[in-house]
């Protein structure tokens, strides 16, 4: 009614605009268009281009010709001897860090959900690992894991928890993998904690009161109310985090870049090393495409685990 | 089954907000006690302290003869129905009702039989597998009640359990709750802001205002002998008419009437209280009569209310619905001297 009245008195250009705004379908597409363009340019095009690259023999600066599935066959037969290590490492890296991020994030959220002084400040500070530019914080971690100048080792040695000179963090395969995971957990936990905290704060207080009157202990309240009520948040966070960790690049790249002896090689790093420094962009594309069906499987698995029990 | 005693119970949320102020109240075994008052009067806080959901600042609460101040809710053996129902959204009706028993470690078969029994009483037997979101408001309310009765607690606490229901369902559920109380023979403590619920359900009513208990009495006594103007105005609908009067000896004089009081109250300024339903259609005693100038008419079928003025004072009167009245008419009505109340204008306390 308001628009109809306004249209009579409005100038011509304004009247036309009002008419467009009033019809839902064209307006809907109009509003959708910018998003579709952006997604098309930055997601769909690179994705399709990546698929095309993977079935060619392109090199950097030289678009090659179609060679079918040769690139995939190359990796499938483990020609470079690293591919399967990278696959296993990627699964370990994702699986182990996710377990830690999930449980630490939940504990952190539970603690932050209590009343204590400077609560707002602490909650904000929690996001710091997320705010610091990643390369900066990963460089700091690399320094902390440095064989000579490691502040971690200085602490370990001086508190007599480890003999001098302390563990060789990035030089030994097992330690290096652990170091990668520690850094990933450090950076990823706040995301879980904040998401869980947000989820916990919308759980009605009534439910806890009802449970208390019903005789539930704190632990029973946690398992019977908090956890089931967090389920939707848990699902989304786990899904997002799994995808991001599976394709994680920056941390492992800065810290080890696959070293020592390709023992911490991940699919993302391995794809990069073939594709950019190695120049075989088509092989790199093929390796990163391997992530796609694997990731789909992992995501399907997560969704299956968290399906509604009905 | 248990009695509940509040002994000088005070609850302060901070140094300057007192929710409940020195409440002393004894609730007898199997009694249906209603705490009534406007929002913010402390009635819910009083109930929550009994449930163990709020700390007690001062005083003692006893269930039977045991002081429960420091006892955690789980050990008090009370069940509560919340205004929001507080049903666990992720659990079925069955699991909601059985939750309390499960937490207490009852066996599966015992839980099943007791939940089924409660489901039958509350006509929820067909709905036990549903989730709360698949239920109507009335069904949810019954689940909340069911969750309480399954536990077979010593005391039932009900915090405005009907306020989320529509008017029809509210009346129906009110009656069902009364039947439930008779059937279970357990102590019920019921909090409401609705004086009709209080009047219809309570064995006794405790009227609260600003954290202070005003009067505890059976419904009829609260209605007939309110201790102060607040209780007199709160109980009864439409509310009691209050006419300021100046008194000299036996005579009370308002702007539009003069009457002889049955005895000299000994104050100069009083407030005359008379309920809308306590006017007489036929004037026999010339001293106690008013001329009402009718301004608004409300015909409800069973009743007719006249809103008008006597002198400069507003008055509401209930009359026979058959009485033919028009707006602007002057209607002559008698006052039922037996039902007249007089309050001290200063202290607002009832004089008679």
What does this structure look like?
By secondary structure, chain A is an all-alpha fold. Chain A folds into 2 domains: 2-54, no CATH class; 83-266 and 288-305, MetI-like (MetI-like fold). In chain A, 72% of the residues lie in helices and 0% in strands. Chain A has helices at residues 2-9, 12-22, 24-54, 70-76, 83-112, 119-125, 128-131, 134-144, 151-158, 173-201, 205-213, 218-246, 250-255, 267-275, 281-305. The longest helix of chain A has 31 residues, at 24-54. Chain A is globular. Chain A starts with a helix and ends in a 5-residue tail after the last helix. Chain B folds into 2 domains: 4-229, P-loop containing nucleotide triphosphate hydrolases (Rossmann fold, 3-Layer(aba) Sandwich); 238-344, Beta Barrel (OB fold (Dihydrolipoamide Acetyltransferase, E2P)). Chain B contains 8 helices and 20 strands. Chain B has a 6-stranded mixed β-sheet with strand order 6-7-8-3-9-10, sandwiched between helices. Chain B has a 5-stranded antiparallel β-sheet with strand order 13-12-11-14-20. Chain B starts with a strand and ends in an 8-residue tail after the last strand. The A-B interface holds A 204, 206-207, 209-217, 220, 224-225, 228-229, 231 and B 51-53, 72-74, 78-80, 82, 84, 86-91, 99-100, 103-104, 147, 151, 157.
Strand-helix topology:
The complex is a heterodimer of chains A (310) and B (352).
Chain A: H1 2-9, H2 12-22, H3 24-54, H4 70-76, H5 83-112, H6 119-125, H7 128-131, H8 134-144, H9 151-158, H10 173-201, H11 205-213, H12 218-246, H13 250-255, H14 267-275, H15 281-305
Helix pairs in contact in A: 3-15, 5-10, 5-12, 10-12, 12-15, 14-15
Chain B: E1 4-14, E2 17-27, E3 32-36, H1 43-51, E4 58-63, E5 66-67, E6 78-81, H2 93-103, H3 108-121, H4 137-150, E7 155-159, H5 167-184, E8 187-192, H6 195-201, E9 204-209, E10 212-217, H7 219-224, H8 229-234, E11 241-248, E12 251-253, E13 258-260, E14 269-274, E15 279-280, E16 289-299, E17 304-310, E18 313-319, E19 330-335, E20 341-344
Parallel strand pairs in B: 3-8, 3-9, 6-7, 7-8
Antiparallel strand pairs in B: 1-2, 1-4, 4-5, 9-10, 11-12, 11-14, 12-13, 14-20, 15-19, 16-17, 16-19, 17-18
């Amino acid at each position: 009614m308001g628009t109809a009245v306004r249209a009579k008195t409005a100038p011509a250009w304004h009247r036309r605009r009002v008419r467009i705004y009033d019809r839902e379908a064209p307006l809907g597409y109009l509003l959708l268009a910018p998003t579709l363009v952006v997604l098309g340019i930055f997601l769909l095009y690179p994705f399709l281009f990546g698929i095309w690259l993977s079935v060619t023999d392109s090199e950097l600066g030289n678009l090659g010709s179609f060679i079918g599935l040769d690139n995939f066959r190359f990796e499938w037969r483990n020609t470079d001897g690293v591919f399967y290590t990278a696959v296993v490492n990627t699964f370990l890296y994702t699986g182990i860090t996710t377990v830690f991020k999930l449980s630490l994030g939940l504990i952190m959220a539970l603690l932050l959900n209590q009343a204590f002084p400077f609560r707002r400040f602490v909650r904000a500070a929690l996001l710091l690992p997320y705010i610091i530019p990643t390369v900066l914080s990963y460089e700091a971690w690399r320094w902390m894991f440095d064989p000579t100048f490691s502040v971690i080792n200085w602490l370990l040695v001086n508190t007599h928890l480890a003999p001098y000179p302390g563990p060789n963090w990035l030089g030994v395969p097992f330690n290096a993998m652990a170091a990668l995971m520690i850094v990933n957990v450090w950076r990823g936990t706040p995301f879980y904690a904040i998401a869980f905290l947000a989820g916990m704060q919308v759980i009605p207080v009534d439910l806890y009161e009802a449970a208390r009157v019903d005789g539930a202990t704190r632990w029973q309240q946690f398992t019977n109310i908090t956890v089931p009520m967090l389920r939707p948040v848990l699902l989304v966070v786990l899904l997002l985090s799994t995808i991001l960790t599976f394709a994680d690049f920056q941390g492992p790249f800065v810290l080890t870049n696959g070293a020592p002896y390709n023992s911490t090689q991940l699919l993302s790093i391995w794809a990069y090393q073939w594709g950019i420094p190695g120049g075989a962009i088509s092989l790199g594309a093929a390796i990163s495409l391997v992530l796609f069906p694997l990731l789909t499987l992992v995501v399907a698995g997560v969704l299956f685990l968290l399906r509604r029990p009905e | 089954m248990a009695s509940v005693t509040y002994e000088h119970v005070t609850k302060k949320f901070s140094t300057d907000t007192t929710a409940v102020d020195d409440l002393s109240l004894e609730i007898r075994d199997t009694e249906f006690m209603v705490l009534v008052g406007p929002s913010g009067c402390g009635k819910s806080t009083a109930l929550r302290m009994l449930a163990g959901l709020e700390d007690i600042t001062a005083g003692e609460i006893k269930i039977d003869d045991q002081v429960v101040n420091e006892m955690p809710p789980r050990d008090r053996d009370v069940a509560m129905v919340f205004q929001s129902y507080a049903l666990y959204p992720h659990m079925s009706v069955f699991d909601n009702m059985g939750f309390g028993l499960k937490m207490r470690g009852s066996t599966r078969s015992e839980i099943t039989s007791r939940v089924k029994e409660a489901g039958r009483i509350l006509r929820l037997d067909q709905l036990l597998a549903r989730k709360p979101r698949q239920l109507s408001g009335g069904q949810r309310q019954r689940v909340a009640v069911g969750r309480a009765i399954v536990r077979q607690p010593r005391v039932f606490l009900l915090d405005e359990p009907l306020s989320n229901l529509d008017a029809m369902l509210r009346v129906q559920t009110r009656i069902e709750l009364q039947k439930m109380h008779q059937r279970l023979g357990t102590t019920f403590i019921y909090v409401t802001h609705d004086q009709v619920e209080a009047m219809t359900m309570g064995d006794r009513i405790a009227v609260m205002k600003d954290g202070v208990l005003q009067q505890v009495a059976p419904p009829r006594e609260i209605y007939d002998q309110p201790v102060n103007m607040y209780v007199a105005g709160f109980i009864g609908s439409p509310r009691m008419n209050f006419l300021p009067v100046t008194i000299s000896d036996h005579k009370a004089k308002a702007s539009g009437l003069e009457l002889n009081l049955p005895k000299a109250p000994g104050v100069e300024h009083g407030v005359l209280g008379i309920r809308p339903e306590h006017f007489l259609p036929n004037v026999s005693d010339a001293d106690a009569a008013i001329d009402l100038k009718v301004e608004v008419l409300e015909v409800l079928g069973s009743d007719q209310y006249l809103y008008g003025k006597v002198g400069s004072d507003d008055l509401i009167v209930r009359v026979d619905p058959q009485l033919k009245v028009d707006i602007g008419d002057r209607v002559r009505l008698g006052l039922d001297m037996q039902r007249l109340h007089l309050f001290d204008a200063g202290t607002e306390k009832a004089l008679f």
